[in-house]
Amino acid sequence: MKIGIIQQSCSDNIEVNRRKLASGIAELAGRGAQLIVLQELHDSPYFCQTEDTACFRYAQPIPGEATQFYGKVARENRVVLVTSLFERRAAGLYHNTAVVFESDGSICGMHRKMHIPDDPAYYEKFYFSPGDLGFHPIQTSVGRLGLQVCWDQWYPEGARLMALQGADLLIYPTAIGYESTDTPEEQQRQRQAWMTIQRSHAIANGIPVVSVNRVGHEPDPSGTTGGIQFWGSSFVAGQQGELLYEASQDAEEKAIVEVDFARTESVRQWWPFLRDRRIDAYGDIVRRYIDEPGTGQHPDKCQ
Question: What domain range is 81 assigned to?
């Protein structure tokens, strides 16, 4: 399958951002893309750098005006389209929600971001309630999409649950970048860790991963920090974690990457991780932390 990705910078003008994306989608569709993936919260700047109630103006109901726009774009270009929107579910209740459109423009599924960060410059808990749709692949005409959003990408549990339900690939719209006071060495360690954890999901589950990030500098409106330099590096990894494509760290890009879903069967035959899972021994995974294991001794008691 030919997968299109769009890595771009965003302004505070929603209409400008949308026109830019619509143009990129049309270009990729014209080059044969069947599935196109956009980055996290692509309609607006990354407003979570501050806690400001004025930013709730970016939120839209689903379905609503935003989904009408992207549904029309998907239909006109005959592509399956993965978007990332700020959802207004009810008064005072908002989610960070990825919406998938079928090639006829209809909504075929969505994922509400499950893991919500709350760190300097990433104050997402102020804006978003945790998702309540769980981890379930979305069936489309091009396959079953294991869709999650950004911070979800650091957790192997979500990736595994998607794979166990037959996801053909994992998809992560993303908004992540450098903290301005970190050293260049630390910045690169973080970027490499971000890629490594997602490539490990591909390996552990034997399915491809598509991760699409923002790029460019966005200032902190409060002036408290130096803003975020989004590190781009959008990528597609194959079933063994191999990099099929890696975008620039500092430039906008539109790319098509061809992924062979047929390799999943053979890779899982070579590396039968699903076969050898000890499902009888993982009960404690649902605990927050294991202070005193139920069997064996606590490490402090070992002689």
Answer: 2-278
* Per-residue pLDDT reduced to its tens digit, 214-243: 999 999 999 989 999 999 999 999 999 999
Q: What is the CATH number of the domain that holds 259?
A: 3.60.110.10
Regions in the chain scoring below 70 on pLDDT: 293-303
DSSP code of 133? S
The 10s digit of each residue's pLDDT in 275-288 is 999 999 999 999 99
Catalytic residue among 40, 87, 102, 218: 40
Catalytic residue among 10, 48, 55, 150: 150
**Owner of token pair 């879903």:** 261
Q: Is 40 a catalytic residue?
A: yes
Q: Which of 113, 124, 218, 254 is catalytic?
A: 113
Q: Is residue 284 part of a domain?
A: no
Q: How many domains does the chain have?
A: 1
Q: Determine if the pTM surpasses 0.90.
A: yes
Tell me whether residue 150 is one of the annotated catalytic residues.
yes
The pLDDT of residue 303 is 45
In-domain check, residue 293: no
Residue 244 lies in a domain: yes
- 178: which strand partners? 229
Rg (CA), the chain: 20
Cβ density class 37-46: b for 16+ within 10 Å, e for less: bbbbbbbbbb
Q: Is 242 one of the annotated active-site residues of the chain?
A: no
Asked whether residue 297 is assigned to any structural domain, the reply reads no
Instruction: Check residue 272 and give its pLDDT.
Output: 97
